[in-house]
UniProtKB/TrEMBL annotation:
Residues 8-174 form the N-acetyltransferase domain. Gene3D superfamilies: 3.40.630.30. InterPro entries: Acyl_CoA_acyltransferase, GNAT_dom, N-acetyltransferase. PANTHER family: [RIBOSOMAL PROTEIN US5]-ALANINE N-ACETYLTRANSFERASE (PTHR43792:SF8), GNAT FAMILY, PUTATIVE (AFU_ORTHOLOGUE AFUA_3G00765)-RELATED-RELATED (PTHR43792). It comes from the Bacteria. Keywords: Acyltransferase, Transferase. This is N-acetyltransferase. Coiled coil: none annotated. Belongs to the acetyltransferase family. RimJ subfamily.
Amino acid sequence: MRLITDRLLLRPLRPGDEADVLAYRGRADVSRYLESEPMTPGDVEGFIAERATATSLDKDGDRILLAAELDGHVIGDVRLRAGRLEDAQGELGWVFHPGHHGRGYATEAARALMRLGFEDLGLHRVWAQLDPRNKASARVCERLGMRQEALLIEESRFKGEWGDLAIYALLAREWTSTRK
């Protein structure tokens, strides 16, 4: 599985990506809005090994996770995760190194996964969930044409405090109408 965008190569994680992945997933500011804590050097090899084969949505809960490579270096990763396949929905997510924020890479990579989901996999709906304090991710959702469908107040305990949750989504027919 490889996707090529204007500036990025999206491909499975592989051995050799450890230093690049640790450079962003090992940061406290990056993990602030993630369920996981900052990655340690001892975590990264297992993380890559587990996700290197995440390249298809063949059964419930499967995911596609691709490294976003720029000029030979992994600067982030994007994910499309299935729930129940019969619902034809995918959850979109992204994590990028802060040194590459503000240049449209997350939007470009996420758009490529949306295209894959809608046009190749036949998904009906693609959605994203995020902490509404994560303004940069909310802007990515908006640039992708997603609408905010819900804002759940103090929805769950997250890293020791009550957290809100924003849900953004786009339907296949909306994707198609924006591509004409």
